[in-house]
Structure formats: C-alpha cells, structure tokens
Amino acid sequence: MSNQSKAPSDSYVEMVQQVLPGDTNPHGTVFGGKVMEWIDVAGALSAMKHAQNPVVLASADRINFLTPAQNGDIVILHASVGYTGRSSIEVDVQAYAENPITSERVLTTNARMTYVTVNKNGKPIPTIPLNPETEEEKQRFEEGKNRHLSFKESFDRE
C-alpha cells in the first residue's frame, strides 16, 4: 500500500446499469433496494480504488430518492471519495436516470456511504489519506471531518 495521499479524482467511478423489467415494481419504476445495491457497488469500487485494499460498508449516512427511474432507463452512477479518517472512507454517490430515446437525464438518487479499509482477514487497517485539491473537494473534506468528529463524540458519550 502506498503511504502517499490521493486526490478525490483518483477514486472516481462511473457505473452504468439499465433498468430491466425484473428491477421494477408494479408501477414500472426501479425498486429502491435495487438502486441501493448499485449505489453500494459504485461506492465500494470508489473506496477500493482509493484504499488499494478491500473495504466493507460501515454505514449509509444518507440515501435520498428524488425521482424514480423508469423501466428501460439507463442509470448512470457517479462515485468519489470526499473524506478519509484513519481507516474510514466516505464516498458520495449520485445516480442519474437517462431516457435512451430522448437523452433526457435527471438526478434520481444521491447517497453518502462510509466504508472501512480492511486487510485480508477483514480487520480494519489505516487507509491512504485524501488530498482534496479544488475548493469544492476541500469543502467536502471539511464537512466529512466535522461529521466524523460529531459521530465520534456522540459514540464516546454512550
């Protein structure tokens, strides 16, 4: 494992899925659980690219379903690391639905997932530090750091 820091762009993942009939409910829209599965896969791939090690899901801090994807739509997921702790990696994921006929694209879901870097025995290990470069990346990092500190403080009180 490299001890060098990595930029958020180093962990960027784009994943594409098509909504098939087996992925939909009686309304013809994709099951939320199917979208959650895709988000977890995209998020984990981004975290693994960053960590250069296996990762496990620790939490889904927030998943917002904004508008449903329809049967036949193409779902494009974008994932990138926004914050790293000692062994944790926070990944932001956005899912867009695109109509393959009209090319109309709309944000359907966004999520924040936290993964833990683990060794081959599944034990947490330190992860590669994140080096945010742009102002937006620096803001995402600071927000993640504040969330991490707030969580740690509330956990320590219990």
Based on the model shown, name its key terms:
158 residues; alpha+beta; 33% strand
Verbal overview:
With 158 residues, the chain is α+β, with helices and mostly antiparallel strands. The protein has two helices and five strands, in the order βαββββα. It has helices spanning 32-51, 135-157; strands spanning 13-18, 55-65, 74-84, 88-98, 105-117. The chain has a five-stranded antiparallel beta sheet with strand order 1-3-4-5-2. It is elongated and about 45 Å long. The termini are far apart.
Give the helices and strands, then pairings.
Blueprint: E1 13-18, H1 32-51, E2 55-65, E3 74-84, E4 88-98, E5 105-117, H2 135-157
Antiparallel strand pairs: 1-3, 2-5, 3-4, 4-5
Please tell me what the overall shape is.
elongated
Which percent range describes the beta-strand content?
25-35%
- Series of H and E elements: EHEEEEH
Percentage of helical residues?
A: 25-40%
| Order of neighbouring strands in the sheet with most strands | 1-3-4-5-2
Largest sheet: 5 strands, antiparallel
